[in-house]
Amino acid sequence: MFQYRQVLVRMRQGDSDRDIARARLMGRNKAARLRVLAATQGWLSPNTALPQEADIAAVVGQARRARSTISSVEPYRAQIERWLAQGVSGSAIHAALCREHGFRGSYSSVRRMVSAIAVALAPQATVRLDFAVGEAAQVDFGAGAFLIDPASRRRRRTWCFVMTLCWSRHQYVEFVWDQSVATWLGCHRRAFEWFAGVPARVIVDNPKCAITKACLHDPIVQRAYAECAEAYSFRIDACPPADPAKKGIVESGVKYVKGNFLPTRSFRDLADLNAQARRWVLEQAGERIHGTTREAPLARFALERPLLHALPERAPDLGCWQRVVVHRDCHVQYERVLYSVPYALIGKTLWLRASDTCVSVFHEHQLAATHVRSRVPGTRVTLTEHLPPNAQAFFAHDRSWCLRKAREVGPACAQLTEQLLSDRIVERLRAAQALLGLLRRYEPARLEAACARALYFACPFYGAVKRILKSGLDQAPLLLPISSEQPYAHTARFTRDAAALFGSDPTH
Fold it and tell me: Taking CA 201 as the corner, what is the angle to CA 195 and CA 203, rounded to the nearest 5 degrees?
């Protein structure tokens, strides 16, 4: 649904259906239908907030993309090329394929293949693209210098991010360790702050951090990059696949950085590399006479800067989106850190959005969980309310809770619980929890009496207390009162007074 939201943003900015189709976001007919639907819902009014994805999904329905197919005539491409070189017509090629190769496809498929081959064989012409002031910037990555990575302590290649303004040729250069989505978004933020403005259009190649599916007419933009474009109010213009000439300005800029900046310098670390690159851009690259414009890029940038779009008053909270699956332990994983979600979502595929400070998880366009982001691999960030009820009870009823609850029941229960938890050989936390769980069936007074009877007979175990309560022995008087006399005085170790056992008549 975020593609629909991008179309609504453009409609509110005044773009026509043709403009939206030209931007390869949505076909003209589909855009026209969406415009009518948005008008009835009041989504096109600039005084109202944009609808959320859940609201759009409820009205529009889930968007479905058609599956890509391979032409049935593709296996015969080499043979068709040979026939075309001999001057064979398209209808004759179709008849020969049906007769000699058992082809069952239509003539239209053969005609499309013939047209594509003819275009490929035609002479290639190049037309220079001109851009208005502040209209566009081009972005690309290039291979950088080798440095020691402080994380792995190994020599590692860096990557050069270059954004060049198409009219002034002023550029932003930054060296990074990877080409991830987070790095891509961060470089854009710093580039716009470097220029103190935003161009109307950003021309990119088809890196995975920007375009998830490269296509001539309908490229699919990375969800996080689409949010970035919406926040900074610029349009993403993806080049056709395998056609880097469409962004030749930045291609030349990358070559200039690799040929004029990197070979003659040495660098201590990544920070030193970027510091030298910034000075080089301002002192050398920006002051040179550009080969195409015949002016200094910084001189032209002074004229272009006021015509760039203003930066947002508040820096947008850019985040990376990723599909995640909920594990059996009620957690999802992002960058080797586990974050909890409600246990009812186990086994489902969710969308995770990670910003610099927090991680949010969504299920069917609804927020399911939010956590503070952790940067320590192997960390488990868990909210107790996300766990099943039995697990919540287990973790809530820890040792301190058991002791506190037992003291509320009585001294005998507290003494028996302390003996269970102080066992040096066996961990008896579950026994203490089960002992206090008997309060769900019996009164505290009965549990206290049962604990006292178990202690009297030196049997401080959960099973003993449970049997005493089940048989009702907690309500019967003890056979002997607890004596404070010395146990070994005048009698054998386990001998008790017969009169106390049987009454005054010992022969009874």
Answer: 95
> How remote is the C-alpha of 227 from its chain's centroid?
14
C-alpha torsion 33→35→38→43, nearest 10: 160
The 3 state secondary structure assigned to 179-198 is CCHHHHHHHHHHHHHHHCCE
pLDDT for the residue 481: 52
480 token code pair:
């002997």
220 DSSP β-pair partners: 213
Architecture of the domain spanning 136-307 = 2-Layer Sandwich (3.30)
Q: Mapping DSSP to helix (H, G, I), strand (E, B) and coil, where does residue 20 land?
A: helix
CA 138 – CA 248 distance, rounded (Å): 9
pLDDT category of residue 1 using cuts at 50, 70 and 90: low
**Domain spans in the chain, listed from the N-terminal domain onward:** 2-60, 74-121, 136-307, 320-392, 419-508
SS3 442: coil
The torsion angles phi and psi of 504, rounded to 5 degrees, stand at: -75, -25
For residues 218 and 24, the answer to whether their CB atoms sit within 8 Å is yes
Cα–Cα distance list, 216 to 45, 108, 131, 432 (Å): 32, 21, 21, 68
Q: Three-state SS for 270? A: helix
pLDDT for 465 beyond 70: yes
